[in-house]
Design a protein that fits this description.
2 copies of one chain form a homodimer. The first copy, chain A, is an alpha/beta fold and 193 residues long. Chain A has a single domain (9-187), classed as Rossmann fold (3-Layer(aba) Sandwich), CATH 3.40.50. Helix content of chain A is 34%, strand content 27%. Chain A has 7 helices and 12 strands. Chain A has helices spanning 21-33, 84-89, 93-104, 116-121, 137-142, 167-180, 184-192; strands at 9-13, 17-20, 37-42, 46-52, 55-62, 64-65, 76-79, 109-112, 129-130, 146-147, 152-155, 158-161. Chain A has a 7-stranded mixed β-sheet, sandwiched between helices. In chain A, helix 1 packs across helix 6 (167-180) and helix 3 (93-104) packs across helix 7 (184-192). Chain A starts with 8 loop residues before the first strand and ends with a helix. Chain A binds chain B through residues 17-18, 49, 51, 54, 56, 83-84, 87-88, 90-91, 114, 117, 120-121, 134-135, 138-139, 142-144, and chain B through 17-18, 49, 51, 54, 56, 83-84, 87-88, 90-91, 114, 117, 120-121, 134-135, 138-139, 142-143.
Amino acid sequence: MSEQIEGKKVAFLVANEGVEQIELTRPWEAVEQAGGEPVLIAPEAGTVQAFEHLDKSDTFEATRVVADVDPGDYDGLILPGGVANPDILRTVPAAVEFTRSFFEAGKPVAAICHAPWTLIEAGVVDGRTLTSWPSLRTDIRNAGGEWVDEEVHVDAGLVTSRKPDDLDAFCEKAIEEIAEGVHAEQREATVAS
Amino acid sequence: MSEQIEGKKVAFLVANEGVEQIELTRPWEAVEQAGGEPVLIAPEAGTVQAFEHLDKSDTFEATRVVADVDPGDYDGLILPGGVANPDILRTVPAAVEFTRSFFEAGKPVAAICHAPWTLIEAGVVDGRTLTSWPSLRTDIRNAGGEWVDEEVHVDAGLVTSRKPDDLDAFCEKAIEEIAEGVHAEQREATVAS
């Protein structure tokens, strides 16, 4: 086990249903392998029903409720995808505020697949460059973001990828950004938008 | 059976998986009861897997492939929801072009729940007023639309509703608009945007 992010707590924010399982489990393992502490946060405590594309897969246990957690306790945020997951999360005000607070603090955020919908809802996409599942391209551009088609894109603390096939690159860059800590440019871009 | 839309062909455009079943079947029955001819069109011929929320439900048969149909053969377009359905459709260029052509011709379009994502992709939301599943509110506003929280909203040939509970009002207004025929304002709004 490396000690790249030893002692750092990393928030995994998901809806109680709809998360793409491998986009939760692979970054979770990467955080643990790098010495960090992953914490599963959802709108409600208890069961998180994961999916493989549109088929139900395993369940996981959310140990924290997003409305009750202090973002100040976390060093980074990872947002897995799955089409229904951010579609639900973006309608939960506490989830949107929790997400935005990482940008306001300049802390690293990594979002994959459909997860950038939650970033759009948090109003943090304007002026940033990111990738996503291709269906979000127009929504990201309409929100003021620049959309690129890359395995992984890093923009001053914001790490984004397109799909499960990109997970190796996504996990590597997410850990790197969390290891680096606060990115002042991420804070400044959020305050300006 | 009424003869409100006797002899009119109505296109139902869906992805091959992910459509919210009741948002397909209820408007389909309403078209038939009003004397119209519904036609199920998808990116691929054959099976359409419907869902009830995130659970698989019945399958249906798409008899036309969207890339091969002439929108000129249809008098109106109905777009059911289901979170995965428009998320897939909007990535299929032929589906987006087919949808846009109804707006360019001023023909009636009815979209419910998550379906307005396909309208965003078709670039026909700017300057229009519509409702949707609440998660799309920000995407619709960012696309230049005005979002309202109503059971059904009619804007010159464009009928929108939020969810399955709104289906009575949605079907009634969809049939009314298709019965009225071409709406010049819909064509003009599309050309201007």
